[in-house]
């Protein structure tokens, strides 16, 4: 039915005669057609606008959500170790830390009427259109008409596509943002969102990259330089193919500051003549093994997933000067023993009272090509050799069957174990010392007495004690034999340092705790160090181990009176360990306030040509590090705990857990003091 037929039918229905001329009919059809087209166009336009603009409009309330923010890993003193980020390297700073000069320079070049408009600047868009059509003299001088609010909207919600639809969305969202945020809140988000070149986002990160300092420390000339970058970061980059564009742009920013009456011409001339030094700061990762250990710790232990986008500030326990000292020593010592078939070394420094890791050196060089330098030996599995013996002796001394004055035969023995080859342990030097006290046996690290003790006290009991002290790698338990007494069970250095801190703490276990505090991007503290302590070992037994391992006389028969295990003027308990296959060499030593562990070997398990505990290998690394840690500090000793007595038995003074001295059976004649062979 035509429009005219519809009209005609309607008029008849209401009883009016139809007397319309052909001319009127013609005019009426065209008017109705015109209005129909208009109505249809409006209807279609509204439908298109709804479907393509309003239906897909981002939630403006997401403006309150932080962007992707880099997570900073700091040492205990606030020194930056590394930043984790994905795509956009950005650190949030509040508006009150953005210098006035940078704010004014940015407003001058980007949006002079920022404080007057409600999100849009019609004048700015018209001026930009006129300039781009008639006055531009090169591609790099194109001007945009978007306000700072519109630029913020584009960065937060939209892409860089140049379409009519995107522009409409930008306009709508800009108006909404102006209703929700104050001008300073908009500026704060702008300075933290906008790109300044490459992966550098936000004014703070840009300042660190180009000038090597925080944004609140930049001068006025540097501020004008930064303000010019966001319009076209790749074109204006001082590291691009046309670095002069950056300085031309800076001068243009200064001229616009004069036009905006932020500065006068004299000041402008001064700024143009002021020299700007540009750095290309590419942050080098410091303490890399520790940094990735922390990342894993945060994700698995504290539950911080997507770490690289959370904008956290992690203050760790690491002390960077101590770390750098330890790294230097490890590298120098490993370089000096290449001829011994030793290609790698590792070390840790721990505060046993707090469980804080002060240094973690996972290899001689994280970037080493001759080895897998990125492999972290401190968290890997290695055999501890004789360095595991203190746990075995602790078991013996606390089960009331043995004392430090008890004698044991350091002589040949063979164990016949069903279904296995006969086991005949040997001492490191291949010799025997006959009847020795447990003090001498432990201090001189004799192998045969250690195996005999384990055979008497039980393999499963040693495993249980080790696990109680924090060793998690001795599973399943039934896979171990008597060779566990000599370090056949693999361990992690990070767990050994934790376990041996128990000796330093007189039986109290303090869990390894490498994180001091965590703050969010607003600077609010959301996590503080949690020190977990528990008494897991009898302090009497811990004292006896400390006393023996700090007794230079007890180790003299094997190591001599002046080995590198002796720290002059300091009371230091220390234990070495070398596997029979020469694959691993350890040295772990402690005072009440510091513990140092060192290791040398080859990542691939290849045996070393030669290494002598107490002389070469890990011991020189340990010796140099612990000397540095104790330098200038008074000697610290362990106080004799209640229940431990000193008594002369069998002609010698010895410490006993009170009541156990009666178990000592003195030999027919005094045992002579062993001498080194």
Produce the secondary structure layout.
Blueprint: H1 3-13, H2 22-54, E1 71-74, E2 80-84, E3 89-90, H3 100-110, H4 122-135, H5 148-157, H6 164-180, H7 183-193, E4 195-197, E5 200-201, H8 203-211, H9 220-227, H10 233-236, H11 244-259, H12 265-273, H13 288-300, E6 313-316, H14 320-335, E7 344-351, E8 356-361, H15 389-397, E9 407-410, E10 434-437, H16 438-443, H17 447-457, H18 459-468, H19 493-504, E11 508-510, E12 515-519, E13 525-528, E14 533-535, H20 539-549, H21 552-559, E15 573-578, E16 584-590, E17 595-601, H22 618-630, E18 644-649, E19 652-657
Parallel strand pairs: 1-6, 3-5
Antiparallel strand pairs: 1-2, 4-5, 6-12, 7-8, 7-17, 9-10, 11-14, 12-13, 15-16, 16-17, 18-19
Please, could you describe this protein's structure?
The protein is an alpha+beta fold and 677 residues long. The chain folds into three domains: 52 residues; 187 residues, Penicillin binding protein transpeptidase fold (Orthogonal Bundle), CATH 1.10.3810.10; 337 residues, DD-peptidase/beta-lactamase superfamily (Beta-lactamase), CATH 3.40.710.10. Helices cover 39% and strands 13% of the residues. The chain has 22 helices and 19 strands. The chain has a five-stranded mixed sheet with strand order 2-1-6-12-13, covered by helices on one side. A five-stranded antiparallel sheet has the order 8-7-17-16-15, with helices on both faces. Helix 11 runs antiparallel to helix 12. It is elongated, with a radius of gyration of 38 Å. About 1% of the residues have low confidence.
């Amino acid at each position: 039915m035509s429009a005219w037929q519809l009209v005609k039918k309607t008029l008849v229905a209401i009883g009016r005669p139809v007397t319309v001329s052909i001319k009127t009919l013609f005019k009426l059809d065209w008017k109705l057609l015109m209005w129909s087209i208009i109505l249809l166009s409006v209807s279609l336009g509204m439908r298109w606008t709804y479907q393509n603009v309003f239906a897909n409009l981002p939630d403006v309330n997401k403006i309150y959500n932080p962007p992707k923010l880099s997570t900073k890993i700091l040492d205990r003193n606030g020194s930056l170790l590394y930043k984790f980020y994905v795509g956009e390297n950005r650190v949030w700073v509040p508006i009150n830390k953005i210098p006035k000069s940078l704010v004014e320079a940015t407003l001058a070049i980007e949006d002079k009427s920022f404080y007057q408009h409600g999100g849009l600047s019609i004048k700015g868009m018209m001026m930009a259109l006129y300039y781009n059509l008639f006055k531009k003299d090169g591609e790099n001088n194109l001007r945009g008409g978007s306000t700072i609010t519109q630029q913020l909207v584009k960065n937060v919600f939209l892409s860089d596509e140049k379409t009519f639809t995107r522009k409409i969305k930008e306009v709508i969202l800009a108006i909404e943002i102006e209703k929700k945020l104050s001008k300073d809140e908009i500026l704060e988000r702008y300075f933290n969102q906008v790109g300044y070149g490459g992966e550098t986002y936000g004014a703070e990160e840009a300042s660190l990259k180009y000038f090597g300092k925080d944004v609140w420390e930049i001068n006025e000339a540097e501020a004008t330089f930064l303000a010019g970058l966001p319009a076209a970061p790749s074109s204006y980059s001082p590291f691009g193919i046309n670095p002069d564009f950056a300085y031309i742009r800076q001068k243009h920013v200064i001229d616009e500051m004069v036009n905006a009456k932020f500065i006068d011409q004299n000041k402008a001339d001064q700024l143009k003549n002021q020299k700007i030094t540009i750095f290309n700061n590419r942050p080098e990762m410091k303490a890399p093994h520790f940094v990735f250990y922390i990342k894993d710790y945060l994700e698995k232990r504290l539950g911080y997933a997507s770490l690289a986008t959370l904008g956290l500030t992690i203050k760790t326990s690491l002390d960077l000067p101590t770390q750098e000292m330890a790294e230097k020593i490890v590298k120098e010592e490993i370089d000096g023993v290449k001829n011994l078939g030793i290609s790698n070394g590792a070390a840790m420094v721990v505060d046993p009272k707090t469980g804080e890791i002060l240094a973690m050196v996972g290899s001689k060089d994280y970037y080493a090509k001759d080895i897998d330098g990125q492999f972290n030996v401190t968290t890997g599995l290695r055999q501890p050799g004789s360095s595991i013996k203190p746990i075995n002796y602790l078991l013996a001394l606390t089960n009331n069957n043995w004392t430090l004055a008890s004698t044991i035969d350091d002589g040949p023995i063979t164990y016949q174990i069903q279904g296995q080859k006969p086991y005949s342990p040997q001492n490191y030097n291949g010799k025997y010392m006959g009847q020795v006290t447990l003090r001498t046996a432990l201090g001189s690290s004799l192998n045969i007495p250690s195996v005999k003790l384990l055979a008497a006290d039980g393999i499963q009991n040693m495993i249980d004690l080790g696990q109680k002290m924090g060793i998690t790698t001795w599973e399943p338990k039934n896979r171990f034999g008597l060779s566990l007494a000599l370090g056949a069970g693999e361990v992690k250095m990070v767990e050994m340092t934790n376990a041996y801190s128990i000796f330093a703490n007189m039986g109290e276990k303090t869990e390894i705790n490498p994180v001091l505090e965590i703050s969010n991007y607003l600077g609010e503290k959301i996590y503080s160090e949690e020190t977990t302590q528990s008494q897991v070992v009898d302090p009497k037994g811990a004292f006896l181990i400390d006393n023996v391992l700090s007794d230079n006389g007890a180790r003299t028969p094997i190591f001599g009176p002046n080995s590198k295990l002796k720290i002059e003027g300091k009371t230091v308990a220390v234990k070495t360990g070398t596997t029979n296959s020469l694959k691993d060499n350890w040295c772990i030593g402690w005072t009440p306030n510091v513990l140092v562990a060192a290791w040398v070997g080859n990542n691939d398990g290849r045996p070393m040509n030669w290494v002598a505990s107490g002389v070469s290998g890990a011991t020189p690394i340990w010796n140099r590090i612990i000397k540095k840690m104790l330098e200038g500090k008074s000697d610290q000793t362990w106080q004799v705990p209640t229940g431990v007595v000193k008594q002369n038995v069998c002609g010698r003074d010895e410490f006993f857990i009170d009541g156990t001295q009666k178990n000592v059976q003195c030999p027919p004649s005094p045992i002579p003091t062993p001498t080194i062979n």
